[in-house]
């Protein structure tokens, strides 16, 4: 199933150190090749910019500062990690790509956001975001992404009854969101068992709300929230202030 985000809302990039070095790609190529960056690959705390019209392939494990994508950043099809402060995709032709709709990503990719509280901007200290037509294309193994609850979720519950069947398994991590649209009321749970339309957890409690109606209350699948397996891709807390990592 295609996961394609075209975000028209303006996201403000978190402000980092005023003295951060910015490395800008000058030609298309692999991230690890100095020539791609005009001679010096972005360092651990250096920011990276990929201008419009250029394509950079993430072909190695990377740690850097913030990343601004105005061209295209593509993840190579191998097990990789990316550690950065923020990752912003900006512009009509700007794309952050992990796999494709017709050729899904079957490897392991983990994006961890490490921005400091002192670098806080409108979106927080760390985020994956897109605006002005920027696109996030993330295509993993085709799994059920989300569903509504089939019955109310009570405080202290160790299971949820879902409205539809899912292909989630023990060890998967899901996020349950509140119908009241309060960011503080989104909770993650690790699944311990699945029987029919019911998923079970070891942790209890639900935001202190005695009972929440099932219609607007949703459970997001592992594809969205945590690393599950070498064949699963996910985005962690795409729009949440508490977001810290993005895994596939």
Q: What's the Cα radius of gyration? A: 19 Å
How would a crystallographer describe the biggest sheet?
6 strands, mixed
Q: Which band does the percent of strand residues land in?
A: 25-35%
The secondary-structure class comes to: mainly beta
Order of helices and strands: EEEEEEEEEEEEEEEEEEEEEEHE
Please explain how this structure is put together.
This protein has 248 residues and is mainly β. The protein contains one helix and 23 strands. It has a six-stranded mixed β-sheet with strand order 1-14-11-8-5-3, with no helix packed on it. It has a six-stranded antiparallel β-sheet with strand order 15-22-18-19-20-17. Strands 2-4-7-10-13 form a five-stranded parallel β-sheet, with no helix packed on it. Strand 19 and strand 20 form a beta hairpin. The chain is elongated, with a radius of gyration of 19 Å.
């Amino acid at each position: 199933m295609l996961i394609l985000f075209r975000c028209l809302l303006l996201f403000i990039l978190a402000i980092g150190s005023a003295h951060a070095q910015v490395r800008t790609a000058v030609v298309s190529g692999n991230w690890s090749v100095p020539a791609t960056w005009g001679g010096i690959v972005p360092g651990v705390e250096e920011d990276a910019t990929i201008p419009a019209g250029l394509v950079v392939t993430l072909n190695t494990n990377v740690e850097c500062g913030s990343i601004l994508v105005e061209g295209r950043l593509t993840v190579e099809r191998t097990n990789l990690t990316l550690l950065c402060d923020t990752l912003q995709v900006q512009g009509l032709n700007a794309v952050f790509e992990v796999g494709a709709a017709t050729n899904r990503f079957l490897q392991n990719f983990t994006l961890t956001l490490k921005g400091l509280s002192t670098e806080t901007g409108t979106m927080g200290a760390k985020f994956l975001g897109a605006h002005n037509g920027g696109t996030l294309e993330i295509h993993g193994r085709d799994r059920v992404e989300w569903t509504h609850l089939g019955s109310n979720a009570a405080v202290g519950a160790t299971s949820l009854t879902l409205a539809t069947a899912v292909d989630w398994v023990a060890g998967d991590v899901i996020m349950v969101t509140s119908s009241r649209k309060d960011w503080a009321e989104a909770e993650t749970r690790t699944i311990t068992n699945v029987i029919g339309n019911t998923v079970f957890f070891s942790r209890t409690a639900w935001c202190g709300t005695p009972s929440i109606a099932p219609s607007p209350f949703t459970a997001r699948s592992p594809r969205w929230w945590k690393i599950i397996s070498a064949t699963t891709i996910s985005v962690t807390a795409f729009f949440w202030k508490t977001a810290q990592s993005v895994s596939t």
